[in-house]
Write a structure and sequence with these properties.
With 569 residues, the chain is an alpha+beta fold. A hairpin with a 2-residue loop joins strand 11 and strand 12.
Length: 569
Amino acid sequence: MLVARGATPSGRRYSLANKAKALAVILREEFDVAFVSYDATTGGRIGSSETQQASDTWVALEASTVTELAVAGRAHVTLLPYNRYELAIPLYEGGKVVLVAVAAVPALASPGPHAAQEEMRLQKWAQSVCDRLRSSDQLLRQRRNEEEQRAQVKMAWEVILTLDHLIRHLRIHKNPAKNQERILEGAFELLHVQSLLWVPQHPDAAVNIQGEAFLGPSDCRQLAACIARLPERDETGLLLCNEVQGKSWGTRFPNLNNLMAFAVTQQSQVIGWVIALNRLEGNAEGETVKIRDQGGDRAVEQPNPGTQQPSQFRRSDAALLSPFVALLGLHARGSENYQDIKNLLVGLTRSLTSALDAKDSYTYGHSERVARIAVELGRELDMDDDEIGDIYLAGLLHDIGKIGVSDAILGKRERLTPEEFEQIKQHTTIGYSILADLRQIRSLLPGVLYHHEHYDGGGYPDGLAGEKIPLLARILAVADAYDAMSTTRPYRPAMPYERVEEILTEGAGRQWDKRIVDAFLRCRHKIHAIRQRGVGESLRHAIDGVLRNDQSSMRSVALGPLQRKTITP
């Protein structure tokens, strides 16, 4: 079967001159004469070798004749003087005629009654060759279409896997700029472009560049400003511009050939631009880059960067980039909502602690100091950032239940009666009840409920002992006891630091966890330095940990035998 050598199944394209040479070889093997090829579009002859010029089989055609033969699309045989026949055979590529090959073939029979039969025989032969060449082109097109479909399916999976990886690992409460960078990295690894930009609308926000940084940040902002003024953007905010240098503004960016841009919006306002610069098309095969998968890195075939050439952006490129643009917009909206929730919780926590401080001037600042002392203990115990955030907030809120205790009892200077002490003890369960319905801070509830449990089981409200007392509560118990003993109360003056440390040491293993007391003694110089401070950025940092959006990282909480609202991850 004849195979047209104008293209390969892998999609590699040859020049028209190379196609003409390949066709000449095929037809010479078939007819044993030299053929000359003409460009079907211009009618011009391709190639001018001395062999062709000297050959008696060379036929000169007018451009109009070549055009007529190309339009007809069939082999054509014409009787020539000197007992010769002109054979014209078109070559198809992509379903249309791109070349017309012509040669003069000497007749086998002398002029006479058999000439018509020979012409008919040559016509059938030439048409048979033409049909086989056309079938070869159709087969190549079919293979190319199948490969393109497979490539599209493969690319769709790559997009899905990359987006899945990003969604699994993005953290709204973490650095927004880093999240944006990860999204851009994922998109850049799939696009064949020289650069991919994120240009935020806010002038103080940083420009992010993936790939080759042939434009500086100020140039990127100028480019985004030019794009924003262009009317060619469609309703989705997409702009495809494949002739940048043909635009009036294109001369400002001499290294820019073409671009694809998306506007990222929030509440109908443009908050930034994602811009892909200079689409590339590779010619080499077999090179790979790494695309992240759920289970690790995975090799995916990409064009060899060393042989990439400029290409034009297509709608398929926009379809590939659009989900990443949507993810950037979703992340921006999520970050804003996160900040709103964070500010709400900051205000709520401030209001609660202020209300508690207002009830008792003697304990003013107690919750803040307990929180800071507990943080130092947590750091000494080498706890992670999320746990440190829980410790700080739990310290602020550990006595919130005292809001429900009578002011007369809280401010009483004399020793409390057994009945009054029972009322004081209720502040742990009251605090739990106040906070139990706030899902975002449910990890703090063990500290609020159990910070008065004793290591030997003699505490309240449930008489838990040893390791059954949650670690958060054991830490708060030491911090709470230290601050209570080292500050003035209505019924007694503040104790010296030395005496406080003696009491903690004596009670280690009985009232308090010895491991926590030992940690206290190791970092006591830091704890002694803690003084009353306002609730500020430390509170905001702690709330970052509480609002972490990875639900799988939520720790389950065991509340012991007391039957209360179930707390689950």
